[in-house]
Amino acid sequence: MPLCGAAGDQGFSEAVNDSSGGAIVSWWDDRPSGGARGIYAQRIDGTGAVRWTADGVRVATEASGQTSDWSMAPDAAGGALIAWDDWRTGPLQADVYAQDLDAGGAAVWYGAGLPVCTVLDDQLNPSVVNDGYGGAVVVWEDWRDGVQSVLQRQRIAPNGAVRWPADGETAVLVTLESAIAEAGGVRLAWRIDARTPRTVTVQRSPDGAAWTDLAHVASDAAGRVAYEDAGVRAGARVAYRIAISDGGVAAYSAPAWVTVPAGVAFALESPRPNPVAGELVVAYALPRAGPARFEVIDLTGRRVLDRTLAGADAGRGVVMLAPRGAFASGVYWLRLTSGGRSLARKICVVR
Description:
Layout: E1 10-17, E2 23-29, E3 38-44, E4 57-58, E5 66-74, E6 80-86, E7 95-101, E8 114-117, E9 123-130, E10 136-142, E11 150-156, E12 169-170, E13 175-182, E14 185-191, E15 199-205, E16 212-218, E17 224-229, E18 237-246, E19 249-252, E20 256-259, E21 267-268, E22 280-286, E23 290-298, E24 303-312, E25 315-322, E26 330-338, E27 341-349
């Protein structure tokens, strides 16, 4: 069906759902008369009938600087959100503008388009999405430093007011660096923009739907967020993500799924026999390889033995800590420390 029969060329179209069984279509229009070049849009109902002005409505009344590079999204009220890069200030300055067309095709924001970012140097390739609250979030490629582009973003309220800093703020990009599942725990690391230090919330889920907050973790100078979960059940399949709050709106990284090996649990057994009359031999289990420190402490708190196995393997092991007669008769505490965790057992020595 014909949407536009105006003189000149029309092309580069985009379409979104109008939430009522129809669609809103936008296109670049090169019609020559009256300086009417620019982006146009038309709404089509579920029967295929056009609902707005014949040949479409102009997205912005000041269309001289519009280009054929724009983005479109439903506004959840029967209209459409549109963002474009705009050269109205001159051939060497691209800015980002946006518009919300209501269900009747009228401009909700400024008729000439809402200036999203007009800072010096180019802003290009905008993308717009509904923010879930009747407004929009616009992201674009920004060359304001004249050397390297970064992603900037701006949130726009339903009435056209900007919610984040003027001319936008650097978008936070989250990259999963590693997710290592071992018997006894999971080690995770993410990277975010190092120029904006943040405290994020690490979350865990058994099904990807219900999420539990585990910890609040601050990013380091390099933008790295690291967390170790020692409380996850062996053999479980779980997902992790980080939540970042901006302007009262939470953003989440993609879930990282891991399966925790069903390995041995951290354990320290009492000596056998106990009371100990001969050599002090103990059995233990480590969920992961690493240093294992054994201490024997008397009831006054004095450490009478301190031995570290620097390269203990993961799994079960047995170690002879002291020969016969090394300790006086009495009651002692035997303590094992490894991987930031400790266990203690009471032992009795007889001679």
